[in-house]
C-alpha cells in the first residue's frame, strides 16, 4: 500500500509573461494549455536536492525511518548526471549506503512504471518497503525558442512510500493494480533529441493519442481490479495540459469535481506530475485514508499507464484500525 507522499518544487517561479519574446501572450498560453505558471531550477541548483526533499517528506508522512527502506526507484529522464543516475544519489542524500537504487526512464509515465515495479517487488516477497520518487527538471530539455513546447514544462519531485500491507486488515481487491503499455513505432512524435537534447513534439497527434491511451488504460485498470469507473473517488491524471484532461474526462464520462487538476500552477512536470498532484490533493484534504484513487499517464516512448489503489490502506478497514 502507499503509506506516505511528499513533493518539492524549486523556488524560482516562471510566469507566462516570461515567454513574451516568443510572440505569445499569457492569454494565448492559458487558453491552449491551462498553464499559468511553472517553476524551474535556478543556476547551480540540482534535481537531486528536490528528490531528497520530496522523499524526506514522504518518509515523515508514512511515519517511516530511512533505514526501513529496502529499495529506491527513481523515475526520471533528466538526472543531474548521465551516470550515476538519480536513485543512488537520492539514497545517499537520505543516508542510505547499502540499499539497492535504480533509475527508470519512461518519461511522463515513469512514476506509474516505477510504482508497478515497487508493487511487484513487494508482492514477490523480495522487498517490504520501497521508496518511489518521480523527479524531472524538464526545463533542461526545452527549446527556449519553441513557442509550442517551451511554456509547457516545469521542474519538481514527488515521492511515495510503498509498503507491504497487513494481510489480515486488507483484502485482495484493495491491492494496488497497474496496467502498462508502450508503442515504440510512435516514438518520433514525442522525443528528446540526443544531439541538441531538446523536446520535439507533434502536438496534434500527441494530443489525440494521449487522450485515447489514458482513457483506455483507466478502463483497463478498473477491469483488472473488478471495479467500475464510478468506484473511483478521486482521479489523478498526468498534468500535461488542461485540454487533454478535459478530453479524457469526456471520454470516460467522469465528473470533473472528482478529478485533480493542478496543471495551472505546475505545468507539465513529467515523472513528478502524479506524485506532486497527490501531495497537493492530500494537503487540500481530498485524500483521506481509504480513498480509491485512479491515476493515468502518457509520455514519450510512446508509453502509457494507469493505476488504481486505496490510499494509505484498505477502504474496508474499520475506522481506528489503519493497516
Low-confidence stretches: 319-323
Helix content: 25-40%
Q: In whole angstroms, how far apart are the ends?
A: 9 Å
Q: How many strands in all? A: 13
Number of continuous helical runs: 8
What class would the helix/strand composition place it in? alpha/beta
- Mean of residue pLDDT values: 93
Major sheet strand order: 1-7-6-4-5
Radius of gyration: 18 Å
- What's the helix-strand series? EEHEHEHEHEEEEEHEHHHEE
How is the biggest beta sheet arranged? Answer: 5 strands, mixed
Task: Choose one word for the global shape.
Answer: globular
Strand content: 15-25%
Secondary-structure map with pairings?
Elements lengths: L1 E7 L4 E3 L10 H8 L3 E3 L7 H15 L9 E5 L10 H8 L7 E4 L5 H14 L5 E9 L17 E9 L13 E6 L7 E3 L6 E3 L1 H23 L8 E4 L4 H11 L10 H4 L6 H11 L8 E8 L3 E8 L13
Parallel strand pairs: 4-5, 4-6, 11-12
Antiparallel strand pairs: 1-7, 2-3, 6-7, 8-13, 9-10, 12-13
Can you put this structure into words, describing what you see?
This protein has eight helices and 13 strands. Helix 2 (47-61) packs across helix 3 and helix 5 (203-225) crosses helix 6 (242-252). The radius of gyration is 18 Å and the shape is globular. With 323 residues, it is an alpha/beta fold. Strand 12 (292-299) and strand 13 form a beta hairpin.
Amino acid at each position: 500500500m502507499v503509506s506516505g507522499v511528499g513533493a518539492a518544487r524549486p523556488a524560482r517561479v516562471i510566469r507566462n509573461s516570461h515567454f513574451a519574446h516568443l510572440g505569445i501572450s499569457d492569454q494565448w498560453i492559458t487558453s491552449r494549455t491551462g498553464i499559468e505558471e511553472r517553476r524551474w531550477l535556478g543556476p547551480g541548483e540540482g534535481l537531486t536536492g528536490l528528490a531528497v526533499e520530496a522523499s524526506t517528506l514522504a518518509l515523515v508522512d508514512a511515519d517511516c525511518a530511512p533505514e526501513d527502506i529496502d529499495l529506491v526507484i527513481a523515475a526520471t529522464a533528466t538526472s543531474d548526471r548521465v551516470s550515476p543516475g538519480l536513485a543512488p544519489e537520492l539514497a545517499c542524500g537520505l543516508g542510505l549506503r547499502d540499499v539497492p537504487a535504480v533509475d527508470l526512464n519512461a518519461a511522463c509515465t515513469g512514476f506509474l512504471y516505477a510504482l508497478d515495479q515497487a508493487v511487484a517487488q513487494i508482492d514477490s516477497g523480495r522487498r517490504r518497503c520501497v521508496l518511489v520518487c518521480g523527479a524531472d527538471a524538464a526545463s533542461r530539455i526545452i527549446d527556449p525558442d519553441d513557442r509550442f513546447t517551451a511554456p509547457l514544462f516545469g521542474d519538481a519531485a514527488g515521492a511515495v512510500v510503498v509498503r507491504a500491507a497487513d494481510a489480515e486488515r486488507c483484502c485482495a481487491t484493495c491491492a494496488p493494480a497497474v496496467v502498462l503499455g508502450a508503442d515504440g513505432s510512435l516514438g518520433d512524435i514525442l522525443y528528446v533529441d540526443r544531439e541538441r537534447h531538446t523536446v520535439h513534439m507533434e502536438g496534434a497527434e500527441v494530443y489525440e493519442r494521449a487522450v485515447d491511451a489514458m482513457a483506455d488504460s483507466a478502463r483497463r485498470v478498473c477491469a483488472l481490479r473488478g471495479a467500475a469507473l464510478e468506484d473511483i473517488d478521486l482521479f489523478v491524471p498526468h498534468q500535461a495540459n488542461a485540454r487533454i484532461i478535459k478530453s479524457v474526462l469526456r471520454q470516460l464520462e467522469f465528473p470533473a469535481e472528482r478529478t485533480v487538476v493542478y496543471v495551472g500552477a505546475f505545468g507539465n512536470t513529467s515523472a513528478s506530475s502524479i506524485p506532486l498532484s497527490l501531495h497537493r490533493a492530500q494537503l487540500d484534504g481530498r485524500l483521506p485514508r481509504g480513498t480509491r484513487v485512479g491515476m493515468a499517464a502518457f509520455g514519450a516512448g510512446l508509453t502509457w499507464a494507469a493505476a488504481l489503489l486505496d490510499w494509505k490502506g484498505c477502504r474496508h478497514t474499520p475506522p481506528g484500525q489503519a493497516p
